[in-house]
């Protein structure tokens, strides 16, 4: 019965009130915002005014995916389902361009205002996303502040001398990030050379263990140990050839939560890599 | 006499093919290393450089496992076909590989095998034993060839479903993606650790399976006749069951379930050995090794970088063969 009544409500909303609930670019900022994507969740949490953000996705409180997991508890939780978002009656829904496609289509048909954000693949994207989120939420000033601060920190990091050391990104299931990814940008900002670029790899693709061993990078960056339960995906990290490559030293662990989503905290990944390169330099000299 | 000479020639040819494929397997991989260079690196000291590391820690274990797992599948297929006197018997079709997978999955994803590494092959062995006992019970109840295969189908589906369930329930998001590995099998990036873990169980299993060859010859005359000729049926049963479980269990624990090799190879070789099970066993072991090494070379050549699963190739060849076999033998089966 519950489902039926919700369907009836949805249909009647579709039939009777399509025009009324589609505001043109709102003169007044939205005051009940629902975000359905872990990246927009975090940008909204950074920018929204008091009481403006109503709900974030369940991933926002997952410490392995979200940097702001601690703060996510203050908001209602959604799972990106049309029904649950509908019942929250938001005046703005924010989503990613790749996930919850059917939900977005349905919510639009029901007359909700939905704003979509593509995943960030560069610092320029992050800048743009922060500014756009600020505009949507009517928080331009705060957005401007965040961007200025991020740019200052980034400039400071880039101004440091680059070590030119080679680095291999080696994630679960042998995945690596090549040209055109946010991770690749952080590697460059850290003054390092990504071996995936040397091998001509584009985007996220698999780097066979053999090639990793052959390239002999100075640093290996992993994101191991993010999940308590074991999986074969992380077996690469215990392979004798991998262990011989890192020479008993632990690989540099850059938690993927810093690079899954582009935000000011992505600079943390740059810092970790830069520090690791410096530590290694100190040891070899 | 001529027959014996022909048999020896066959074994010699198969062994030569296995050696050639073993060496080829060592020289195929994403890192483009020349043939001479790679063989030289195989014997270098490990500190010599990345080439030695690649050859000794990545490609060598892969080739060894290909050889041993192929031999396991060929040998156990031949024994099961002879012992159950069923042309359609083989570890994967009877559900033995699938239940071994389930055992291995439970050991790995609960973290048990991290604490106790031997737990992995032992759990897979336990899974395999369950399947062999179920199949055995079905065969014992005057079950025809079809009954056994149907029991195997049911067992496979159940084990596959339970494997999927266990992997989907894992809090690690990667676990669910690994269903493919456990259902189709792969030798990508296995290590010497896997070889040491699985090899003892496989060797013990082979010894058990090889020892039933003579009894299988007598069994071709029928169970009663064999018993009256002094064959200890209970002993044969124990050796066939435990030998299959130990070798297939260990093979599945490190490489996932690989189908059809155990079905196709004995059938292809039977005409050459004069339909004598004791002669078919060594030939099938060598033939299985050739087939699996060839399949493992092909997955790397056909789709480099795509991590194609072995079971995809073995099924493309094996499933039509199975259908043909069913078609040809259906008069006897029904």
From TrEMBL, chain B:
One annotated GO biological process: siderophore-iron import into cell
Cited SUPFAM superfamilies: ABC transporter involved in vitamin B12 uptake, BtuC
GO cellular component: plasma membrane
Compartments in which it is found: Cell membrane
Xref: InterPro entries: ABC_BtuC-like, ABC_transptr_permease_BtuC
A GO MF label: transmembrane transporter activity
Membrane topology: Multi-pass membrane protein
Pfam family, one: FecCD
Sorted UniProt keywords: Cell membrane, Membrane, Transmembrane, Transmembrane helix, Transport
Transmembrane segments: 60-80, 92-112, 118-139, 146-167, 195-216, 236-269, 281-302, 308-327
Entry's family note: Belongs to the binding-protein-dependent transport system permease family. FecCD subfamily.
Listed name of the protein: ABC transporter permease
Originating organism: Pseudaminobacter soli (ex Li et al. 2025)
